[in-house]
Amino acid sequence: MDKHTLYIITFTILITVSVSSLAALGESRLDVYTSIFTLEYLHWQQYLGREERR
Amino acid sequence: MPDKIEFFGAGLTAFGTIFATSSYILLANVPLTALGVGLTVLGLTILITPQHPVPKETVQAFIRSSCENLETLLEATGAFMKATYFPSNGKVYAYIPVTREQNIVMEDVGKNVGNLIAKSGRSIGLIIIPPASELLKTSFSEGAGLDTVAGEILVDASEVAESVKLVESDSTLVLEIFRPRVDVNFSRFKAVMGSLPTSIAAQAAALKFSKPVQVLDERFEGNRIISRLKVLEWTSTPYT
Prior knowledge:
In chain A, 85% of the residues lie in helices and 0% in strands. Chain A contains two helices and no strands. Helices cover 46% and strands 22% of the residues of chain B. Chain A binds chain B through residues 2, 4, 7-8, 11-12, 15-16, 18-19, 22-23, 27-30, 33-34, 37, 41, 48, 51-52, 54, and chain B through 5, 24, 30-31, 33-35, 37-39, 41-42, 45-46, 49, 51, 141, 152, 156, 159.
């Protein structure tokens, strides 16, 4: 599987898992969700960048 | 022309935006709004992340043209013996003998770098720059093992194969190259230089060990290539 596909699939799973987990915990602040998405996005971007530089 | 994945990304972005807005305004449901935002982010990520910075077809056309030139040269000279890859000044070259009688040592070949024809006694051969030689210069990392280097060059940098496994025994290296994505169908080129993934792996090995490397043989089994490479000494005669 190429890195781009892996990245998209992992990011999809992370978003689904974080939304369902936070919803299950009863989180009702939209900023918490967006913060988590931002963290996930930046983390994966950094990981992908490092993989390409290696 | 946009790719299928780009259409998907644009669709996901549009759907996510509509979904988030309607969930927030009509349903006043934060988790569903967040899901919409998440889908929008995902769609935008798909759109902005380049899948192939240079179109794959273009890269393959460049590689084919480069190999076609070599094929013509090999046909014209009647070369049929296996090439020996050797490093010189941080670059990898390939020595291809054109006469049957070969008593040249690799040390002497190395001294002829810069000339197209290497001559020593009655031994005549060609010294060419193999495809991907420049790629190795930019993506070669010092200190890493050969399996890591082969993976970096074949999988990460050139993307000519999906994965690589390597087994070392004495001076012989056995490579298992899975799902090669780029190869050329030039019979003389393949017979002399090896298949493109094997040729690149041999170049990586030559650079890694700072020694001449020869492709002993290779087998094509389904969607994998099993190649055997031989690491030679500078004082050895590769063609006996």
